[in-house]
Structure formats: structure tokens, C-alpha cells
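User: Hi! Is it possible to get a structure for several chains at once, not just one? Here's what I have:
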Amino acid sequence: MPFDGYFDYNATTPVCDEAVQAQRLAETEFANPSAKYGLAKKTKEALALAREQVARLINSNSDEVAFTSGGTEANNWAIKGALAAQGAFGRRAEPAHVIVAQIEHASVLEAASYLERIFDCEVTRLKPDAEGKVSASAVAAALKSNTRLVSVMLVNNEVGTLQPVRQIAARLRERGIHFHVDGVQAVGKIPVDVRELGMDTMSFAAHKFYGPKGVGGLFVRRGVRLEPLLHGGGQEGGTRGGTEAVASIAAMGAAAEATQRMLPEMLLRLSRFRTILRGLLVERVPGVSFNGPENQDAQAPNTLSVRIAGVRAEALAALLDQMHGIQVSLGSACSNNKRAALSHVLLAMGLSEAAIRSTLRVSIGRYTREEDLHRFAEATAQCVRALQKIGNGVNHERAAIA
Ligand SMILES: Cc1ncc(COP(=O)(O)O)c(C=O)c1O
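Assistant: Yes, the chains can be modeled jointly so their relative placement is included. Here is the combined structure:
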């Protein structure tokens, strides 16, 4: 099986057959969708169809979906565009205040730092609780008279914690504050209904729901004002300049439709698989525990943040790859010993450096089979034993820090 060693679905997903087919079809139609002649009809139609398919997946109107180059652009656009539309970068006497969660993706955190550096915005970075959740009351408590924007993700990419977006949206609506949600790890993985959740903008990326990389979009609620991030030829109803990536967008639409069809069954299967995987790991791997919510309903069903006491996750991941052809990520992007390189998510949740260095992020998906879970658990047990035997990859610093 081509994907039997793949346990990194939160990094990206394989491209599904429906997306590949749609991409091929759209590639044969080359006309610029902005052209007025008849040849452009097919490419215009491909964009319109994809917009409807994505809108159905998130329960929005199709005119509320704008295409981008992915999640990073969509997050940057929502944050900078919403503030610009409110005149926050002009000659205002009072600098704008922005609230983000500490566990956000770099595309949100870095955009916030940029606003701070270049536009003198005041940024509050909210600390989550030990399970990685930012509460609506914590957001409400951080609001100021000049708060112009709050950005909180729907599902965290490292531990899978679901955030109380509906409750946060309700608090912010009362005050007329723009609420942006990074939905990149949520759309396609859990049911997402923008009507019910009530945010103003939400980003998504096709490559997290079995579409191609380099394409995604932003849900912009009707009536919400955003300045463009990319100024240009007036595409996307004047909201984003640049000729649309028609073939990739068509593929994203097809992936959205397939995902929507499969989602109910996937949710059940992946929750069951996660329970099985937890059980297998507890049974076979000494010192294993899990970061994130106790209550598994508070976590995306495909994600497990696995901690193995005393074992260096970086060495374990390398061994799993080399010896067993298993691909898995670290809970942290650490490649050296600098504290700054540790996972900012796990740090914000209050984990020690040793605990973070012992954490693997395991994420499963559509092509994971039950037997793959057994192979993963067995391979992990073997690699942990090997590492313990040679004393290599063990967290020597653990005792000093804990
Ligand atoms: C939560 C989250 N937001 C944003 C992004 C960025 O999306 P993209 O890779 O499409 O730019 C990612 C990608 O890993 C993500 O996990």
C-alpha cells in the first residue's frame, strides 16, 4: 500500500483521485478566466463550480469564498486586510490592538509580529490552558477599547485541540470586533459550518483535504470589509489580484466534494482508529502518555500528540523512517538544541523542554488502515527498545530540567 507508513496527515495529505482527474480536465482548458470571449467560458465555469463545492463543504454562500495560494496567504490577507479596511494603518491617534493565541500557526503569529513592528499595533498573545485550549472568557478578558481583530484557530495543528470558536464569535459579535479563524487544520477533518460558528473570515488549504498544494482560500462573510493583500487586475471580484490557478482550484473543488461525501464515515473511523492506536501504544511502549485534551471529543479525531518519557523523539522519528519506512513529525520543529526551536505550541501549554523533546505528532487520515496502526505501534516499540539499549537518543538533560 503506498501510504501504509504515512502518519503525517496534518503536514499534508495525498492528492485524491477526484482531484487529480479534475486537475487534468481543467489543464486542457487554458483560456484566461477573465477573458470576455467564448473560449474562456469553460475556465470560468470551472472556477464557479469549485467555488460552489468549497462553499458546500463549509456551509457558506459561494460568493463568500475567495481563492488564494493557500493557508498562509489567506491568514495574512484576513489579518492585514481586516485591519487595513478599518483604517488601522492610517493616521489614527490610537494604535490598533490585536489578539492572537500563542498556539497559532506561524502565518498568523508572524503576521501579528509584522503589524507590531511596522504599524505599531499592540499585540496580545493569549496563553492556552494545559490542554491547548484558549477559552472565550480569556479572549473577552483581553479585549480593550481599541481591539480591532482577534485570530484564534479552529483546530491546532500539533495537538489537535478544538477551540471554542462559536463562543468566541458570539462575544466578539456583540462588540463588532473582526474575528478571523485559521481553519486550515479543520476544514476537511471535522464538520465546519461557518453559519453556525459565526466568524467573519476563515482560511483553508486544499492540501489538508486531499487536494493539491499551493491553493486554498478565505471565507469572507457577506458584508465584511477586507482590503486586498495582493493588488492587481481585479480578479476574485476585486478582492485578490492575479490570474487564478484554475486547474489547482478545480482540483480543490473536487477534493472538497469528495471530502464532504466521506466525512461522516471518516470521523467515525478515525476516532475508532485513534482509540485503537492509543491502546496499542500504551500496551507496547513503556512510558507513553498523550499531550492535549483528556476528553477526546475536544480533539480532532485524526491527531495524537504522543510523548515517550526519556526518549528523544527526533532520534525515534529518524529510526522509524529509516528502519520501517514510517513517516511521522515531531511535536516540535527542533533540529538543534536551542530552546527557541522547541514547539511553541507545547511550550505555551506548559510542557517542559524534556517533555517536548520526547513528543511525536502522529496524524492519520483517509488511507490509514487498521493494520497500519498495529505496524506503527510495533515499529515504535522496537525502535524505543533499540534506543534505550544503546542509550542513544535518550533525553540525558531530562533530570536536569524536570
Ligand atoms: C494551522 C495551519 N495554518 C496555516 C497553515 C499554512 O497553510 P499553507 O501550507 O497552505 O500555506 C498550516 C499548514 O501547515 C496549518 O497547519
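The longest helix spans residues 246-284. The chain has a mean pLDDT of 93.

User: Great, thank you!
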